[in-house]
Recover the amino acids of this structure.
């Protein structure tokens, strides 16, 4: 995107889109007074100028504004762009209708009848579709603004999961599952502390974290290390790495630090918080002389753009004798691509990664998010031949500093 050609294409697209949407704005405001139209046009093009300067600011890599403020500026600009794209779909439907009507008039009018310019120009826009387009686009933008207030609105999701082969000693085992903290996106320590308090109120036997502690840098945990150190459970706190934890999306070296050293620092953060980071290995949990295995692997994604650092073969080795196994693997695409096919004795896999795209609809009988077109398993519980996958919707947020319809999640799993 930062190449001159890419930038030219992107900003040309924005201007063309704005000119296109503006035609409907002009049409619907035609009967307004000149003063009202002037105010409306100034506001409309003012927002366009804001969006262009916002994108220029972000793409230039400028550091004179606080990171948190830049995220909001960028998110509003993206929201405006998405709103106009959504609205323009309805305008496009209307223009296709007008084109078909014009072609019909041209081709099928009596041969002795001449189609005048006035008759062609009388094929007007549909006020209904124009209003629907503007209303829909405005609604999307309004929802994105509303979502800013939901980013720390942690929801507790209780899920009982039944397994026939669960050892008797572990029936009723309570697990808190969290994922995708993304501490580099946080800007409110007290709000995060409330989320930690909510976790600890439920006195789980075990806490499992399935990756993406940071966005890029281990130093993003400096303000939050003490907060997350408060997490503890009788059977321990275990964690794995997610795709963002490796620093693959940052330019290195950074502040004199190499990518390799950053990763080592992040591993140390887990240790300093009292979390047992599982790196392609397993641990055995015992209770009343019975045992289960918890496997944790590094990131393994089936999608081409995500790395495959995970080695389930290493983590699985030696677990054959345990009757019940829980796998912690950040990316849910791993379940279908490898786990279900090659490791049929893994009973439960816990993942995160998708965030539910931080946007969707979850109502009784309705569960939808755009992320489902990329990930078949994107939120909640899934089952295949008695084996189960749970995908956490994420504790934190990334990119867009908000959530619409898909709230940040703390999962309380009870094995029965």
């Amino acid at each position: 995107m930062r190449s001159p050609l890419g930038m030219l294409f992107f900003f040309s697209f924005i201007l063309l889109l704005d000119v296109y949407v503006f035609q409907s704005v002009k049409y619907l405001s035609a009967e307004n007074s000149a003063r009202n139209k002037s105010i409306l046009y100034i506001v409309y093009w003012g927002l366009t100028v804001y969006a262009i300067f916002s994108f220029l600011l972000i793409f230039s890599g400028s550091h004179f504004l606080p990171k948190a403020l830049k995220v909001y500026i960028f998110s509003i600009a993206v929201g405006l762009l998405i709103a106009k794209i959504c609205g323009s779909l309805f305008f496009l439907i209307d223009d296709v209708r007008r084109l078909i009507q014009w072609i019909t008039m041209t081709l099928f009018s009596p041969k002795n009848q001449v189609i005048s310019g006035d008759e062609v120009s009388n094929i007007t826009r549909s006020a209904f579709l124009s209003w629907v387009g503007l209303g829909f686009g405005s609604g999307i933008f309004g929802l994105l603004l509303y979502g800013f207030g939901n980013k720390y609105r942690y929801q507790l999701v209780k899920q009982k999961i039944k397994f026939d082969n669960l050892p008797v000693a572990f029936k009723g085992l309570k697990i808190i599952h969290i994922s995708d903290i993304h501490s580099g996106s946080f800007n409110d320590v007290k709000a995060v502390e409330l989320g930690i308090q909510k976790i600890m109120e439920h006195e789980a036997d075990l806490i499992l974290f399935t990756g993406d502690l940071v966005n890029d840098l281990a130093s993003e945990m400096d303000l939050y290390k003490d907060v997350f150190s408060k997490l503890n459970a009788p059977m321990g706190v275990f964690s794995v790495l997610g795709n963002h934890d490796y620093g693959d999306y940052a330019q290195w070296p950074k502040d004199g630090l190499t990518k390799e050293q950053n990763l080592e620092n992040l591993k140390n953060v887990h240790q300093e918080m009292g979390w047992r980071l599982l790196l392609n290995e397993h641990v055995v949990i015992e209770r009343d002389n019975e045992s289960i295995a918890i496997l944790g692997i590094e990131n393994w994604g089936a999608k081409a753009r995500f790395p495959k650092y995970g080695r389930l073969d290493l983590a699985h080795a030696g677990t054959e004798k345990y009757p019940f196994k829980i796998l912690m693997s950040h990316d849910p695409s791993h379940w279908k691509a490898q786990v279900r096919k090659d490791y049929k004795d893994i009973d439960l896999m816990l993942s995160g990664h998708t965030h539910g795209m931080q946007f969707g609809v979850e109502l009784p009988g309705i569960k939808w998010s755009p992320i489902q077109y990329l990930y078949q398993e994107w939120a909640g519980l899934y089952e295949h031949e008695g084996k189960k996958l749970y995908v956490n919707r994420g504790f934190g947020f990334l990119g867009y500093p908000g959530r619409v319809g898909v709230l940040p999640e703390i999962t309380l799993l009870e094995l029965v």
User: Anything to note?
Assistant: Residues 155-415 form a domain with the Purple Acid Phosphatase; chain A, domain 2 fold (CATH 3.60.21.10). The two ends are 50 Å apart (CA to CA). The mean pLDDT is 93.
